[in-house]
C-alpha cells in the first residue's frame, strides 16, 4: 500500500521540480520584485501598483481622458474596450459562420479558409493590417472609396480616435476562425431529436435557433468566452507591429506597457513586475471564475 | 528455458573463441619480439639490461616501439647504421611547433645529427630539436646521422601544417536597401585589404535597441562589430564593450562626436564612422522652376512658400511627413526647435529637466509655430517614409524634411534635379553619427578591432562619402571625395554660423525616445493636443532621469 502511494509521487517529482523552477519561482520572485523600489531594492509596498495605475507617463487608467471620452484612456481601459468590442463580434461571426456552414457542401473548405487567420502569426497579422489600412492601396480605404464613402478614407492607425478600434477590428478576422471552429464542434453535439421535435411542434427557424441551439451551446460559449478574453488580456504583438501603441498612447495595451517598462531604459523591473502581477490577477481571476462556471454547467 | 540455455551456451562459446584468437595473436607478436631480443642476446646483448632500459625509457617515450628502439640503440650490437626519425605532432594548424627525434641504431657510436626541416630554415645538430613551421604546407624533415667511423644514414618525416580556418566577421547595422548596398562596398574593400570576409546583417531599430543589450547582458555576442547611432545607448552598454582609446586617434574627429561616447573617466566606448546631417527641406529643382517657387530666406517667406505650394492643384500637401516608428517626425520637430529657439535650446533639452523643461515658454513657442502649420494642413499625415519619398518625387508633395542620405535613396529619379534649403535663419543642424562598437564577447576580438579601426579611418569613410549621402568624421577624408550635392550640404553644415547638434531623441534614448516619437505622431494628426504633448514629454524626461 505504501509502495502504491510513493511510486506516483516519485514519478511526479521531476515534473514538480521543473514547475517549481520555471513557473512557481518566477511567479513568486516577480510578486516580490513588484514591491521593491528601483535601484535601492527597498520595500515600498503598493507604491509601484499605484504608480502604474495612475501615476506613470502613460497610466493604466487615465481618468481625465475617460471623463473627456478621449484617447488614450489607459492600457487597462484599452484592454477592457478590446474585450467589449472584440468578444461579441467574434462570437457573433463565429456562431453565424458555424451555423451557416453546417452541413453545407464545401463547408469544410470554407471553414479551413476562415481558420487561416488563426494559424497566421499575430506579427504577420499586424503587418497585414498596416497594408490593409494604407491610405492609397489599403483594401479598407479602397472599399470605402468604391461605396461612395471617400470622405472616410484615412490612415486609421494614425489617428488616436481610430487607432485602437482599427487594431481591434483587424484582430476580429484573425480570431473569428477560432470561435467558428469551436462552435462547429459544439453544434455537432446537439441531439438531432431536439430539432425534429421542434419541427413537429411547428417552431420557426429563429425560435429553434434561439430556444434550442443557443442554450445547448452554453458550455461551448463558456469555452469561447474564456479563451477569447484571456487572449484579449494578453494581446501584444499585433499592437506592437501595427501601431507601436500610438499615436500618443491611444492604442497601448497592458502587455505592451509591461514590455516597455521592463526592456527600455531606465529599466524599471519593479513597475514592470507590478504590471505583470496585475495582468496575472486579471487573467487568473477571470479564468478561475469561468472554470468554476463550466464545472457547474 | 532449454532454448535460452542453448543460446547462452552458444554465446559463451563464441566469446571463448574470440578470446583464444586474440591471445594467440598476442602470443605470436610477443614471441616475435622476444625472438629479436634473443638474437641480440646471442650477440652479447644484455637482455636484462634491455628490459631495464625499456622500463626506463617507457617513462619518457610515447610508445613501446620507441622504447624498444631506444633500448636497442643503447645495446652494443654490430649492426649497419640505421636512423629512425619521428615527429610529434605530424600535422596541425600553422604555426605548428613540432618536436623531432632521431633514434640511431647500429653503426659505431658516437653519432652526429643533422636535421633539415624542409622549410628553408637553418638546420639543427640536436638529436631532439623543436621546430616551428610558421606557414601552411607539407614539409619533409630529413635526419642524417654520421657515426664515429664515418658511416651515415638518413630518414625522413613528413609534417603537414594546415592553414587556420578563415575568420568571418559579423556586423550588425540598421542599414538596408541602398544604404546597405553602399556599406557592403566598404566592407568589401576591407576584405580585399585584410583577407577577412565580413557578413552584414540588417537589423530593425527595435531589434538592435533591445536585442543587442540582452545578448551582451547574457555574456555573449553574435556580432563582432555593431554600428549604431545612439550615444546614450552605447554609454549604457559600456561595461560590455571594448574601449577604443588605443584603437583610434581621437584628435582626428570632431570633439562633439568623441565626447558623446566618452564617459566621466575619459574612456571612449565607440569609434565614429560616418555622419549624417539633417540639413533641411529637400525639393525638386524642376518642380520649383515650373511653379515659379523660390527658396525662402526667412521664416515669413517659408510660410508663404508653404501656402503657395499648398495651392498647387496637383499637390496633396505642401510638406511630406515620413514615419516609421516616429523618427522622421522627430527630425522635423528638432529643426523647428533649433530654427526658432536656437541650437542651445535643443542642447538644453538633451541635458534634461535640470536645465530645460519641455513646458518652458521657449519650447512651447517653437512648437506653437509647428502646430500652426500643422493646423493649416500643410503637413501630410505621417506615412512610411520611403513611400513618401516616392510621392515627393512624383510631386504629390512640394518639400520633404529629410537627412543627407536623401541623395542615396533609389526613389530619387535624378539626383541632379534634387536640392535643399536649410530651415530659415537656423543656427543648428541635427547630426547623427553612426558609431562603431566592438563587444567584449565578440567571437573574433582581434579581427573585430581591425574592422573597427578600418571603419573609423579615412579609407573606409572616403568610400562611403563617395557613394553619397553621408559625411566622414575623420579629418583626413578629402573634400574631393564628396559628390557635388553632398559637398553643398557639407559646406552648409560646416558654416561657422551653424552648430551640429546631436539628434535629440537619440541622445536621450530609452523610453523617452519612444514616448517622443509617439507624442509627435499624435501632434501631427491633432495639433490641438500641444499642451498634453509637452506635459507628457516633460513627465517622460523626468522619468528618464530616475
Q: Can you tell me the CATH topology of chain A?
A: MetI-like fold
Order of helices and strands of chain A: HHHHHHHHHHHHHH
The percent of residues in helical segments of chain A reads over 70%
CATH architecture of the largest domain in chain B: 3-Layer(aba) Sandwich
Question: Can you summarize the main beta sheet of chain B?
Answer: 7 strands, mixed
CATH architecture of chain A: Orthogonal Bundle
Class per helix and strand makeup of chain A: mainly alpha
Can you count the beta strands of chain A?
0
Low-confidence stretches of chain A: none
- What percent of residues of chain B adopt helix (DSSP H or I)? 40-55%
Can you tell me the number of structural domains of chain A?
A: 1
Under CATH, the topology of the largest domain in chain B is which? Answer: D-Maltodextrin-Binding Protein, domain 2
Number of helices of chain B: 19
| Total helical segments of chain A | 14
Strand content of chain A: under 5%
Silhouette of chain B = elongated
Largest interface, C-beta closer than 8 angstroms, per-chain residues: A-B, 24 and 36 residues
What does the model show?
Chain A is mainly alpha-helical and 297 residues long. Chain A has a single domain, classed as MetI-like fold (Orthogonal Bundle). Chain A is built from 14 helices and no strands. In chain A, helix 6 packs across helix 8. With 546 residues, chain B is α/β, with parallel strands linked by helices. Chain B has 19 helices and 20 strands. In chain B, helix 4 links the parallel strand 8 and strand 9. Chain B is elongated, with a radius of gyration of 38 Å. About 4% of the residues of chain B have low confidence. Chains A and B meet through helix 13 of A and helix 5, helix 6, helix 18 and helix 19 of B.
Keyword list:
heterodimer; A: 297 residues; mainly alpha; 73% helix; B: alpha/beta; D-Maltodextrin-Binding Protein, domain 2; 3 domains; four-stranded mixed beta sheet; elongated
